[in-house]
Amino acid sequence: MKKSTKAGLVLAALAGTTTMMFFGASAASAAPGDGGALRPLISAGTITSTQAKAVHDQLKADCEAAKSASRTTALRTMVTEGEITQAQADAVAATERGGMRALVEAGTITKAQAEAIKAEFEEYASDKVDGRAASLAKLVSNGTISASQSDAIASALPAPGSKPKHEDSAKKQGQGMKGSRGPVAPSAAPAA
Prior knowledge:
Helix 1 runs antiparallel to helix 4 (about 50-80), helix 4 crosses helix 8 (about 130-140) and helix 8 (about 130-140) runs antiparallel to helix 9. The chain starts with a helix and ends in a 12-residue tail after the last strand. Helices cover about 55% and strands about 0% of the residues. A hairpin with a 2-residue loop joins strand 1 and strand 2. The chain is elongated, with a radius of gyration of 23 Å. A two-stranded antiparallel sheet has the order 1-2. It has about 190 residues and is mainly α.
């Protein structure tokens, strides 16, 4: 793939698509079920559970839009560079997760093309843009949350790509994957 073509398309996609956002664990960690990363804000009365759900829904919708835009841009690049045809790109775009195997079996694309498409998707996914601020700004502009709530939410969300940390998920001494194992045994070293 030509670097100049790719760079131009990436810049055009980023400039033309304000929803080019990937959040890693951020959207999932804001989930309203147990409160996720927003649980302390709900407990403190900073936001309501309804607002937490609205944040979750907005982050998830924007993440899905960004993923779709990224895949579209990657396929457009491959068509422009002659690696696949427009018909093949349309077939790939129409497939669900794992659908490329069916396209290979049907002869729509070759195995080499499927591997190249997967690599292209991974490459474009690595060019992530943290768009949480834009998602939160939408919620502020439509009156769902205030600017101060947006700041508190942004601080509470984990860094993009990181896994959320919950206080209750930390392992305690004497506990393993199977739960409590009784008291921790004293050292077996002989007394001096």
